[in-house]
Amino acid sequence: MPKVDLSARELQVLNALIDCYIKTAEPVGSRKLATKYNLGVSPATIRNTLQDLEEMGLVYQPHTSAGRIPTEVSYRIYVDNIMQIRPLTNKEKAQIARELTSGNKAIDQILEQSCRVLSEVSMQLGVSMAPRFTEGILTHLDLVPVGENRLLVVAAVKSGLVRSVVMEVDSVVNPKMVQETADILNERLSGLTLGQIIDTIHDRFRDVSYGDPKLIKLFTESAENIFTPQTDKDLHLMGTPNITSQPEFKDPKRLQELISLIEERQKIVSSLNAAAIYEGVVVTIGKEANLGMLDGCSMVTSTYRAGKTTGTIGVIGPTRMEYSKLMSIVDYTSKVLSRILSKE
User: What is the CATH number of domain 8-82?
Assistant: First the structure.
């Protein structure tokens, strides 16, 4: 983002304009700012300041004689330099903690619940990604026949997380050979990180004379698919009506682009993975989020920990979102989720 030096008055007016636009979703004029905000200057002075901000590319008029709307650049300045994060109330914290800690759930259920909580509290689209398993240490592996030609692979990681994948096999599954295969897999793989397993599995099973050779071959060839990927199957989404009902998506074309993004999912996965390389709460605004044609949306995300593995949660909504509140919601939810999944 190009560096923009703003005077104290320009920052004050920009802050008021963004605050007003977030609340109303309507272009903001100088008279409205003078009436609603105690800026200490006349509407004429505010109008001149808005003109200066427009020349700097920070606001624009959707049509002649309309008020101004913030640009993505101004939202970035707002988030980084102007906005004050709004702390959650004790009641809001209690609601989040209560929803996430109710019942003894599996990891997928917990992530789905965290997604639901984020969508309900934020009134945006809640998102959560399953943990990245490659740093997790395998504690046990189960092979469970689920049909004549299908096996359920259940990999348990030291933190207590479990990943399940169904494998298709060419021949009828023999329960005895399945158990022997599971035994040799556990003998040679338990105690390794999943990343180590992926990198060395072919070498570890070159001299095997125990178990079902076809199953072992299939497992070694499928190891990367079993342990590594974060695909749209690892993504949880909740609260679609929250975002589709926003004024930004009244236009049928924009609404269709949003629905396509939610249905295709993979772009959301890629954007969440890109944000996950940073520590703490991350705000990606508009085109920064890389959501394809839907560049009028922003994301607020944070990583959570599950033992030695990490995943990502957050919210997606229009760039006109209440960043000050959403950053607190996402931050607190990620901390509660980390405590639950790391059994702290």
Answer: 1.10.10.10
Find out whether 308 and 135 touch, Cβ atoms under 8 Å.
yes
DSSP helix/strand/coil, 119:
helix
pTM value?
A: 0.74
Q: Which residues contact 68 (CB under 8 A, 6 or more apart)?
A: 17, 27, 28, 29, 50, 53, 54, 59, 60, 61
**How far is residue 55 from each of residues 44, 51, 52, 150, measured CA to CA in Å?**
17, 6, 5, 64
Note down pLDDT in tens along the chain; length 344 residues.
Answer: 556 789 999 999 999 999 999 999 999 999 999 999 989 899 999 999 999 999 999 999 988 778 999 999 999 999 999 999 999 999 999 999 988 887 656 777 888 899 999 999 999 999 998 877 666 788 888 988 887 788 888 888 776 667 777 888 887 778 888 899 999 999 999 998 888 888 888 889 888 888 888 888 888 888 877 776 555 678 889 999 998 899 988 889 888 888 888 888 888 888 888 887 788 899 999 888 877 766 788 999 999 887 767 889 999 999 999 999 999 999 999 999 988 887 64
Which residues, including other chains, have CB under 8 Å from residue 56's CB and lie 6 or more apart?
A: 4, 6
Take residue 140 and report the two structure tokens written for it. 């046990």
Is 95 within 8 Å of 88 (Cβ atoms)? no
Domain 90-131+232-342: CATH architecture, name and number where available: 2-Layer Sandwich (3.30)
Domain boundaries, the chain: 8-82, 90-131+232-342, 134-227
Cα within 13 Å of Cα(233), Cβ side: 9
